[in-house]
Amino acid sequence: MFAGSVLIGFTLIGFAVWLHFNDQHGWQHESFDGELDRQYLSRRRRSRRWVHLIFGMSGFFSIVAAIAGPGTVWMGAWACVALSLMTIVLLAGLDAIRTLRYQSRKRPEIHRSLLDQED
To answer: Membrane spanning segments where (predicted)?
Structure first.
């Protein structure tokens, strides 16, 4: 149980660091040119920073549970991990809604640029 908790903890912390690094340095094939793109990117980065922090805290609580061993601290730490991961799922849903709204506002701009390229 100790090794599993530590492994999960360090995996979550590593995943949070990896996500944060990629979000700060940009994902492959990602380009943001216009003002609408910059607004979306700044909002996305701000909200995803919270997700990365919550992932890292989940890893920390998993490691705390491993060190504490079975008992009330162990139960509390794993309850925090479960609640934080459910929060991440909720925030991911909100991020998906924000992305859909951005794409619907971006679509006319994409159509105009494609029509201009055809001419």
So the answer is: 6-22, 50-69, 75-97
Task: Identify whether 28 is part of a domain.
Answer: no
Q: Establish if 7 belongs to a structural domain.
A: yes
Cα dihedral sign, 73-69-81-26: positive
Task: Look at residue 27 and tell me if it is in a domain.
Answer: no
The Cα 72–Cα 27 span in angstroms is: 41
- Over pLDDT 70: what percentage of the chain? 93
CA distance 101 to 40: 10
For residue 113, give the amino acid letter.
S
Number of domains composing the chain:
1
Mention every residue, 6+ apart, whose C-beta is less than 8 A from residue 12: 55, 56, 58, 59, 62
How does pLDDT run across 10-36, given as a tens digit for each residue? 999 999 999 999 888 776 666 667 788
